[in-house]
Design a protein that fits this description.
Blueprint: H1 11-19, E1 25-32, E2 38-44, E3 47-54, H2 62-77, E4 94-96, E5 99-105, H3 117-134, H4 147-160, H5 169-190, E6 195-197, E7 207-210, E8 213-216, E9 224-226, H6 238-248, H7 262-279, H8 285-289, H9 296-313
Antiparallel strand pairs: 1-2, 2-3, 3-5, 4-5, 6-9, 7-8
């Protein structure tokens, strides 16, 4: 997207988009934290608020969003606590004034206490149930977590942006290629692992906790990948990972050869994160949220980190 993608997404347009499908906004709007998309809590007259999620133009195809919504409904049908989009005349992907969006019930909650073993075991059990459903089928449109999507494409986004100083291009390219080779070597050593439909971005910010327990939000990064991808970001250390796996294996077997993928998955996420910032820089929300990315010293540190990750993998 070469221009600010949400320049015309005004509060009035948000209210009109909700009203277009028979709901009656009461004028209350609360912008929720989201960089990739735009998400609002919208008050509804004589009813509970809804969440309106406006998809970033050009990111996912309609078919890929349909897969996200179908996966969410499949999880909800399996009585897994996850917020699925509302359907209007059988449609969950809605369009208004050129914006694609979805509406969902509002489910509140607080951040999980990831330092508590009981919490981690509970999340492990819940993820095992998610993966049991995720293993039933495959995504055809949403792609996979692999070196192409998390190394090659982000690298090209960085090199094509104005953020990386020209004199650092060779050093950055060399660092990414070294890390890519190290990851490929690690993957070859681990051997083939089973992939399944994942949450894809399973960190504490996408989990809300209530007195009834946890529920997941935001399947926007759902894709194919190894089960470990949905576990490692929740584990601050080995003890936390042990607790997660203890809960997980109460419901589903876990291939422990995937433990060796954690350094590779961590490294791929780091490359992907920098590429994501670079690709979105023309969205005004990104310079405001990530001002450090405009500083050459940050990119120098990033290049050093990539070399360190390659050495760790080796």
């Amino acid at each position: 997207m070469k221009t600010a993608p949400y320049a015309t997404l005004t509060p009035d347009l948000v209210l009109d988009a909700v009203a277009a499908y028979g709901l009656w906004p009461d004028g209350r709007l609360l912008a929720l934290n989201s960089y990739e998309n735009r998400v609002w809590q919208v008050g509804i007259e004589d009813a509970a608020p809804v969440i309106a999620k406006f998809y970033r133009p050009g990111r996912w195809s309609d078919a890929a969003i349909a897969e996200e919504h179908a996966f969410a409904q499949e999880l909800a049908d399996a009585e897994i606590p996850l917020v699925a989009p509302l359907a209007f005349a059988g449609r969950t992907l809605l369009v208004h004034a050129g914006f694609r969006y979805a509406l969902a019930p509002r489910h509140g909650g607080r951040a999980p206490q990831l330092e508590a073993r009981e919490t981690l075991e509970w999340l492990g059990r819940l993820l095992a149930r998610v993966h049991a459903v995720g293993s039933r089928a495959t995504f055809a449109q949403r792609g996979a977590l692999n070196r192409e999507s998390f190394i090659a494409r982000p690298m090209h986004a960085v090199l094509a942006s104005s953020l990386l100083p020209a004199h650092l291009h060779p050093a950055y390219r060399d660092a990414v290629h070294a890390l890519d080779r190290a990851i490929a070597t690690r993957e070859a050593a681990v051997g083939p692992v089973r992939t399944l439909r994942l949450h894809g971005d399973c960190h504490a910010g996408n989990i809300l906790w209530t007195d009834a327990g946890p529920h997941f939000v935001d399947l926007d990064d759902a894709r194919m990948g190894p089960a470990m991808q949905d576990l490692w970001m929740l584990a601050a250390d080995d003890a936390a990972l042990t607790a997660l796996l203890d809960g997980y294996e109460q419901w589903r077997d876990f291939d422990r050869t995937e433990l060796a993928l954690i350094p590779a998955l961590r490294a791929m996420r780091q490359v992907h994160h920098a590429g994501w910032i670079a690709a979105r820089w023309l969205d005004p929300a990104f310079p405001a949220a990530f001002p450090f990315a405009a500083e050459p010293c940050w990119w120098e540190e990033h290049i050093g980190d990539l070399h360190a990750l390659a050495e760790e993998l080796a």
